[in-house]
Amino acid sequence: MDANTKTVLRRSSALLLGVGVVATMSVYFVHDWFDSQLMGNLGLSHNAADTVGTLVVILAAFVGQRLLSLVVFRDLDVGAIASQQKLQQRIRSANDAAGEVAGELKQVRTFNDVLRGQMDMIVKETEKAAFDIAERLQTIDQVVTRLGGFVDSSTQESTDLLTRSESSIARNRELIGTLDQYISDRVNAARDDEKSVAEVIKEVQSLGALVQLIKNISSQTNLLALNAAIEAARAGDAGRGFAVVADEVRKLSGEADTAVGKINEGMNAVAASIASRFQDKLAHTHIEREREALQRFSSQLEDLGQSYQEVTRHEAKVMATIGESSQQLAAMFMEALASVQFQDVTRQQIEQVTTALSRLDSHAAELADRLDRLDDPGVALKPLSQHIDQLYQDYVMSSQRKTHQASLNRKSVGDGGSGPKVELF
Amino acid sequence: MKTIMLVDDSATILLSISSILTKAGYAVEKAANAQEGLAKFKANTKVDLLITDLNMPGMNGIDFIKEVRKLPGYKFMPILFLTTESQQAKRVEAKAAGASGWLVKPATADELLNTIKLVLH
Description:
Chain A has 425 residues and is an all-alpha fold. Chain A has eight helices and one strand; from the N terminus they run ααααααααβ.
């Protein structure tokens, strides 16, 4: 029952009650007078007078009701006529609106075609973009793989270099040891040479005593020869021959003395020459300088070797860091490739929306048909709730179901139970 | 080298997942739908593991693996589903059809490769 009908009923009831009360009171107070007047003046029987009275009361009540309605409600039928006119006007307006709505509902498919076209475009573009991303990631991976290969070979080379440098340094140390030993040997040999030379010089100098001895012998011989010459002169002719011999002996003595002096000079010259010649060779300062030079050389060689090892180790460290980064890049590349799956997820979500739009098309077409055939009770109309339920049944992922339930302010219990992300049967 | 057949109607999935598998040292056979995959199986392609999508146009993943299981030589081959669907009811259906495991998209590379290792070794 609509509001207008209720109003009409309420008004009618009130009016009926008022008219009824007036009619009842009229019958109560006027009945005897009316009866006596009609029966007395017109000669009607009691029954006939009541009948006429009843007709008069009904007629008066009817007219009174209409007049009262007109006065109170400005309508002869307690507002029902105006309400009916208003209702007819509304029905005409509703028919016009239904026609307009039906026309608009028929356009929903066109509108949805535009939306579907847009979504298809989004799917294609995201698919192309995701495909390009995957291809570029592949290219990056190829570069990273090449870099990894280079790092591996370089690391091997660094290791080899390090090994070689360590063995080279070991050889250098061995060589330095050999040189150091050589210097030590040389020092020892020089010391031995020094001793030998000193001994030679001492030996040579010791010959001076022998020379002095010969010189003394020569001097005594000369003295003997002189005595012999004196004795030979004293002997006269008998000693003449002996005097010749004594003279010869004295001459020999003189020559021997001269020879001894020359020998002594010669020996001194030899000793001086040996001392002079071996002076440089025996000087320790040369050997010390050599040793210092060798130590400096050894130290520099050691520093060089250590620097080279440090460089090689640093290179190996750099290569190891690059290698680790390369592996991390490879892992990141894999994860980046895996994340491209988002496009497939998005595509399927958009496809569901497209399917939902098709359902909306069908529903809009049914609504339009229903409006076009308002008077036909046989027009079938599938309720939107059924379309919503069917939409829920068609979902292909848990997130769609959750969103669906959240949009309808329902608890997310109708998912059928989601399992773990990874499951082995 | 183990061979994995990858069946998915998404070209992006085929490219990205096959790249991951190739990098991990597997040979990959690709098919864009169930019919194409079935044709490869019927041609006796050597496959050690099948990874398939569930929702594909034409034939869905469950019907597809039922057909594969009927073929000689593929009765005991492991089969993994890689799909956006996570419903328990679908998993039960897939298990009954002969599936060995289930991965929900988007799966990480680790999840994918670890699961493959488990079913292959």
